[in-house]
Design goal:
- This protein has 230 residues and is an alpha/beta fold.
- The protein has eight helices and ten strands.
- The longest helix has 16 residues.
- The protein starts with a strand and ends with a strand.
- The C terminus is likely disordered.
Length: 230
């Protein structure tokens, strides 16, 4: 579980959250929505401890090795001489260290993840040969091999086609059914409605908790199940 207690958040002298309480329950599948600049990415960074808050308390019910984060901006150096398989393998280095520590089950997990995202046929290809959509699938596979109990994804579906979006969201849906907690930033209201169980919508420095069955985020703001104390 993750809790924000009376949290205020400012970026560049602009208030994003004002004395907000927010609870993310273990095992939930949440879409974080809002206009550009509303604070979606910042909230993910606060959850991870990468960004401090102006005031209030953050309670994180997870440890350092319990989460996996897919940032909006690709942090992989695509000019580095590395194969797709090696890039996915890098997702395990933080937990296991050098490649010599990896066992056959880890290599099987890498192969499985590449199959799940549909790029197993590219595992020996250099990462600088990938299209934007293929690169995003690679990053998704690297996240999957960590088998984390908490997944945080910042606009992971940008610049990929609809088929790839459906594949990746189906994977997330299956992870949710296995008890994994998921927090994902999304813009597409149709995808929110189809895949996500609850929507956290940021508007006017407030957060609205809604069932993710609204055609438009404005409907969520007008008819919130629960309006967070902001």
């Amino acid at each position: 579980m993750i809790k924000f207690e009376n949290v205020s958040l400012h970026r560049s002298q602009r208030c994003l959250l004002n004395h907000c309480d927010l609870t993310i329950e273990q095992g939930g599948f949440y879409a974080l929505t809002g206009d550009n600049g509303s604070g979606k990415s910042s909230i993910l960074q606060v959850v991870l401890g990468q960004l401090g808050v102006s005031s209030g308390t953050i309670i994180r019910g997870f440890g350092h090795g319990d989460y996996s984060y897919l940032p909006q901006k690709n942090q992989l150096d695509i000019q580095f001489p590395m194969s797709v398989e090696q890039a996915v393998m890098a997702g395990l280095w933080q937990k296991f260290g050098a490649i010599s520590a990896l066992k056959s089950k880890h290599f099987e997990r890498i192969e499985q993840a590449l199959h799940e995202v549909g790029i197993a046929h590219l595992k020996q290809a250099s990462i600088n040969q990938l299209s934007g959509g293929q690169l995003q699938r690679l990053l998704f596979a690297r996240m999957l091999v960590q088998d984390a109990s908490l997944l945080l994804l910042d606009e992971p579906l940008a610049s990929i086609d609809q088929k790839a979006k459906n594949i990746l969201l189906d994977i997330l849906k299956a992870k949710h059914q296995q008890g994994v907690t998921i927090l994902i930033t999304l813009h597409d209201a149709g995808l929110v409605k189809r895949y996500v169980s609850q929507q956290l919508h940021i508007s006017d420095q407030k957060v609205h908790l809604c069932q993710a069955d609204f055609a438009h985020s404005d409907d969520c703001c007008r008819l919130p199940i629960r309006q967070m104390a902001c």
